[in-house]
Specification:
By secondary structure, the chain is of the alpha/beta class. The protein has seven helices and six strands. The mean pLDDT is 94.
Length: 236
């Protein structure tokens, strides 16, 4: 049983291992990504049942554009299908959908579908599902610094006004709680330029399972592990 008072408000997930999962089964990388999409749907359902407020999936990084064009095209098609089918289902279940990251160079049609999905679900009050798409945390921090600098030039702020809370308002995640727990599947122990500012006090969990094998029970095990840890936030 879970302690309802210790359910993390926000869980962030680096979905690692689709390619390796497919390779181990002598399948195409496409098959691995397709199975990975199924896990997103399963984990979203479980997160909503447990009462989480936010769950963020690292779907596509700014570095992923270096992958083969064929694979990128396939990932964009999967994304378009997700935006049409799964977001419709999320809306029925009172789930809010949000994307963080840079618009360019995402296809214009994909950008339109993202905006429509966000608009359609913006008033939903249940779980918020966030996709980090064309996202890189260092660039996010640089962009936030630029936005604040321009606000100073406009006269909206003074340099001495800047503190942690104000700076957070210029990040893609403005208005969202920082993650309490980061899960990275496949056993790799790296953050990989993901939510560097926001993960400052998050608990880290690195299961050995590849993402397509990471099921609802595995997610619950991560929550149970989180609840067993003592979080001091720098104190005694």
């Amino acid at each position: 049983m879970f302690d309802k008072d210790k359910i993390p408000k926000h869980v962030a997930i680096i979905m690692d291992g689709n390619g390796r999962w497919a390779r181990e089964r002598k399948l195409t990388r496409t098959a691995g990504h397709l199975e990975g999409v199924k896990r997103v749907k399963e984990i979203v359902k479980t997160a909503a049942e447990l009462g989480l407020k936010v769950i963020t999936f690292f779907a596509f990084s700014t570095e992923n554009w270096s992958r083969p064009k064929r694979e990128i095209g396939m990932l964009m098609r999967y994304l378009d299908n997700f935006l049409v089918r799964e977001v419709k289902e999320m809306d029925k279940n009172n789930i809010r959908f949000k994307v963080i990251g840079q618009d360019e160079p995402l296809p214009l049609e994909t950008q339109k579908k993202i905006k429509e999905a966000e608009r359609k679900t913006k008033d939903n009050s249940g779980l918020t599902v966030v996709l980090a798409l064309n996202y890189g945390s260092r660039q996010e921090i640089v962009n936030a610094a630029k936005k604040f600098a321009y606000s100073v030039i406009r006269g909206d702020n003074k340099p001495d006004d800047l503190d942690i809370n104000l700076f957070s308002r210029y990040l893609f995640t403005a208005g969202l709680p920082d993650p309490d727990l980061l899960i990275r599947t496949s056993g790799e122990m790296r953050i990989s330029n993901f939510l560097l500012w926001q993960l400052s006090y998050a608990e880290l969990y690195f299961p050995n399972k590849l993402w397509p094998d990471f099921r609802s029970e595995d997610f619950k095990s991560a929550i149970a592990e989180f609840q067993g840890r003592e979080r001091r936030f720098g104190g005694l």
